[in-house]
Amino acid sequence: MSTTTTTLTPAPAGSTGPAPSKAAVAGEGRIGLRANLRHIGALARRNLLQIKKDPESMFDVLLMPVIFTLLFVYVFGGSVGSSLGGDRHDYVNYLIPGLMAMMGMNIAMAVGTGVNDDFRKGVMDRFRTMPIARSSVLIAKIVVELGRMMVATLILLVMGFALGMTLETSVLGLLAAVALSAVFGAAIMWIFILLGLSMKTAQAVQGMGMLVLMPLQFGSSIFAPTQTMPGWLQAFTDYNPLSNLADAVRGLMMGGPVASSVWWTLAWAAGITLVTAPLAVSKFRRKT
Fold first, then answer.
1. Triad 239, 64, 51: Cα angle to 5°
2. Phi-psi category of 132—alpha, beta or left, where left has phi over 0 and alpha has psi -120 to 50?
């Protein structure tokens, strides 16, 4: 009696791979939770091994928090700190929580480019022929990128404390701020996965991502108080989910009202996920 073993072996670079079989797609609905988690773990391990083989892919995570912190603290810290009624030290306390809110947005772009690159190499076509949940392939990507986001957040916090940041609340408040940033970051990653599945090249995903990220990041309370902005821009920042996230993280770490900002951030995260995750999984099934 012979047995058949299924392995998660990617197709060679440049190959298109076979189209997903109807049996594989039909069998997806019968996959249980335990098997689904096992598939996510195996695929996440595959993504981690990719990082091990290409350590340069971690440069953005390792260097971005350092560069952003030093750049904004020493270029804008004096003037913005004065507008806050203090000095550069006060701006460090204002900036670091805001940058924590921004980390997920920047790292999320790597998810979209990675998915797009995997399709170009034929890896995703091989995965789609296997009897695994289509969502497990995408969720494994998000799990690994959340790990990268936690590394970037840790480096950011180390930089902040080295420059004199003080935690005004408690360690629990800090952990809650990190968790909230991760929840919102995971939701944003679904947007970039959908972009990665919809755009033709990784460069196009990056270009579209920057067009989305730049207005959201700089038209928010991440880098400066919104009270100094023109009225029309303040109206935009009021509805900007990054402003809610930055204000929530700032309140959890530095004190102040947080309930409204936290609930709005969670509502944004839930709404984005509920809309984009099913679209991304559907696009993943149908992409040729």
1. 110
2. beta
**Amino acid type, 56:** E
Specify the pLDDT at position 270.
96
Chain-centroid distance of CA 172 in Å reads: 22
Q: How buried is 136 (Cβ within 10 angstroms: 0-12 exposed, 13-18 middle, 19+ buried)?
A: buried
The two tokens of residue 123 are 């890896």
- Helices and strands, number each (H, E), in the chain: 12, 0
- Other C-beta atoms closer than 10 Å to the C-beta of 70 total 13
Residue 114 near residue 43 (C-beta atoms within 8 A)? no
Indicate the SS3 state at residue 9. Answer: coil
**DSSP assignment of 179-194:** HHHHHHHHHHHHHHHH
Question: pLDDT by residue (tens digit) across 16-61?
Answer: 444 444 444 444 446 667 777 888 888 888 888 878 887 877 888 8
pLDDT single digits (tens) 76-87: 877 777 777 677
> Rounded to whole angstroms, what are the CA distances from 145 to 120, 122, 175?
20, 21, 18
- Cα-based angle 80, 216, 234 (whole degrees, multiple of 5): 60
Q: What angle do CA 92, 93, 97 make, to 5 degrees?
A: 100
Q: Is the dihedral of CA 107, 233, 223, 261 positive or negative?
A: negative
Residues of the chain with pLDDT > 90, as a percent, come to: 27
Decide: residue 150, CB within 10 A, 0-12 exposed, 13-18 middle, 19+ buried: middle
Rg of the chain, C-alpha, whole Å: 21
